[in-house]
Automatic annotation (TrEMBL):
Keyword NADP: no
Molecular-function annotations in GO: heme binding; iron ion binding; monooxygenase activity; oxidoreductase activity, acting on paired donors, with incorporation or reduction of molecular oxygen
Record: residues binding heme: 277
Keyword Cytoplasm carried by entry: no
Top-level lineage group: Eukaryota
Name of this chain's protein: Cytochrome P450-dependent monooxygenase
The species this protein was found in: Selaginella moellendorffii (Spikemoss)
Gene3D superfamilies found in the cross-reference section: Cytochrome P450
Classification lineage: Eukaryota, Viridiplantae, Streptophyta, Embryophyta, Tracheophyta
UniProt record similarity statement: Belongs to the cytochrome P450 family.
Length: 329
């Protein structure tokens, strides 16, 4: 990043770095391999993830007006029909390589773990492909987007950035922050929690849920067949739940510690219950580590020609409408 910044008058579009890093990070965990920048595999994979996001985030009129299903006016079914076999063949190749141990890694990766399941737990290839793809798909953008929001808030609040840097330096010095340091960094945890509150990457959790029975929820009758959404964004911005909800104030989490992994519904950015995010520990640890290392290494400052714009755009995740462009020193 520093070389790039030096070559570009100190200005960096952080999203580009974060998205590449995030894809590689998840590929390493799930498939046990990284993809060279500019390689054909890396380009195919990013393009498939992007297409998947567009399709899942699109409002499909045919879901709501069944008469349109046969016409597929937005071409959504057609695009899914093209994407599914591409994903299947990409992931199947990686499973086959693991079976033949072409890519033998020192540490078992997630594919090795799935392949080692036996007896009643044994998975068919089709199920493995679904699980693996879901992890890549769900684990890539969320981490990159959240980190971009964090850097944006740190640029807007230099005093918070410098307090955070002080904590990191006092606990890790100049040595690269390690995962084992994270638990001690209480202010870092507070900053990340506050970013999850202000900018939950999945503001509607998994978008839609279908009631398969009649249900009564908080006094409301929800008939079977209803599609419902959980608006986590609205809860995390509700003034009856949070004081000064529009203020980025990590200190609130120093005053009261709130679990973000699904036990406290005031702040459940990973969902809760049976469909809670299975990657929450990994996602959280990654964002904490990246934030700590970025702040330890660099100073982020606003550029007068490109002010930070906190406007959100709701795609499958909630992202910055204007990609963040900052000075990196
Ligand atoms: C900061 C990072 C992340 C955030 C904020 C996040 C958030 C979420 C949310 C809100 C859901 C929907 C929960 C619900 O509907 O109740 C979800 C589901 C899911 N997440 Fe994450 N996630 C993150 C990282 C990851 C990572 C790193 C992985 C994989 C390694 C992952 C894998 C999944 C999967 C597979 C699901 C679907 C679970 C299901 O449908 O049952 N996520 N995530």
């Amino acid at each position: 990043m520093s070389t790039f910044a030096a070559e570009n008058h100190g200005l960096v579009r952080v999203r580009d770095f974060l998205q590449r890093a995030s894809l590689n990070n998840i590929m390493q965990t799930v498939f046990g391999r990284r993809f060279e920048d500019g390689s054909e595999d890396a380009a195919r994979l990013s393009e498939m993830v992007r297409e998947g996001f567009e399709l899942l985030g699109a409002f499909n009129w045919a879901d709501h007006l069944p008469a349109l299903k046969a016409v597929d006016p937005q071409n959504i079914l057609q695009r899914c029909a093209v994407l599914v076999p591409r994903v299947t063949s990409f992931v199947q190749k990686i499973i086959d390589e693991h079976r033949q141990q072409v890519t033998k890694a020192a540490e078992p990766d997630f594919v090795d773990v799935l392949l080692s399941l036996d007896g009643e737990d044994k998975l068919e290839d089709a199920d493995m492909i679904a699980v693996l793809w879901e992890m890549i798909f769900r684990g890539t953008d969320t981490v990159a987007l959240l980190t971009e929001w964090i850097v944006a808030e740190l640029v807007l609040h230099p005093e918070i950035q410098s307090k955070l840097r002080d904590e990191i330096i006092s606990l890790a010095g100049k040595s690269r922050v390690a995962e084992s340091d994270l638990n001690k960094m209480v202010y870092l945890q507070a900053v990340v929690k506050e970013a999850l509150r202000m900018h939950p990457p999945g503001p509607l959790l998994s978008w839609a849920r279908l009631a398969i029975h009649d249900v009564s929820l908080a006094g409301h009758h929800i008939p079977a067949g209803t599609t419902a959404m959980v608006n986590m964004w609205s809860i995390t911005h509700d003034p009856s739940v949070w004081s000064e909800p529009e203020k980025f104030n990590p200190e609130r989490f120093l005053e009261q510690d709130i679990d973000v992994k699904g036990t406290d519904l005031r702040l459940a950015p990973f969902g809760a219950g049976r469909r809670v995010c299975p990657g929450r520990a990994l996602g959280l640890a990654t964002v904490l580590l990246w934030t700590a290392r970025l702040v330890q290494e660099f100073q982020f400052q606003a550029d007068s020609l490109h002010p930070v714009d906190l406007t959100e755009v709701l795609k499958l995740s909630s992202e910055m409408a204007t990609p963040l462009l900052v000075k990196v020193l």
